[in-house]
Design a protein that fits this description.
Blueprint: H1 10-34, H2 39-47, H3 58-62, H4 66-87, H5 93-113, H6 128-146, H7 150-171, H8 178-183
Helix pairs in contact: 1-2, 1-7, 4-5, 4-7, 5-6, 6-7
């Protein structure tokens, strides 16, 4: 694979998203099991919530604490740039420039999440593990690119995209959370 090849096609991108969603469902079921609920009760509880998709209620975000606003802005930026990077040509100047912007957005999202404690007031939740991993893996992915280890760079950054954005992001849309209220509540 050359440095400027299209290393991920639309079919692989869709498969990657599907795997991310499957892992997310598995984590939701595991969380329910840890609280003593069976899979039927967890999925049934989600199905009966009857959220209605609508235009985002941005007033909720505007009234949220600044660390949540920074976090949502960084995640949204990283998600948009990440999709472009995943589907675009690799090794180009545009890829490198957008890649640095993506790294900054991901680092901002990870650091800002360390100041959000709504899931576990006064402490960290398991979602903060994604932030920790992101802060460790980001430099690894950059270092791999700097050393021209294209395979390791691609795997690291793809893993961060799936784990740090898709899987962790899916948890933001669970009932009762701010993103659920903004879009489905």
């Amino acid at each position: 694979m050359s440095d400027t090849s299209l290393s991920i096609g639309p079919a692989r991108f869709i498969r990657m998203v599907a795997i991310g969603l499957a892992v997310t469902v598995g984590l939701i079921l595991a969380t329910g099991a840890a609280q003593g609920h069976g899979p039927g009760a967890v999925l049934g509880g989600l199905a009966h919530l009857k959220g209605h998709l609508h235009a985002p209620h941005l007033g909720l975000l505007a009234s949220a604490p600044i660390q949540i606003q920074v976090h949502v802005a960084a995640v949204t930026t990283a998600l948009a740039i990440g999709v472009v990077l995943m589907l675009g040509l690799k090794g180009t100047t545009v890829h490198r420039t957008l890649g640095w912007a993506w790294v900054i957005a991901m680092a901002t999202a990870a650091i800002s999440s360390l100041f959000i404690h709504r899931s576990n007031p006064g402490g960290y939740s398991f979602l903060h593990l994604f932030a920790g991993w992101t802060l460790i893996a980001l430099p690894m992915g950059v270092f791999a690119a700097r050393k021209h280890n294209v395979r390791l760079h691609g795997r690291t950054m793809t893993g961060l995209f799936v784990g740090g954005l898709l899987i962790a992001g899916a948890f933001a849309f669970l009932p009762g959370r701010l993103m659920w209220q903004m879009v489905l509540g």
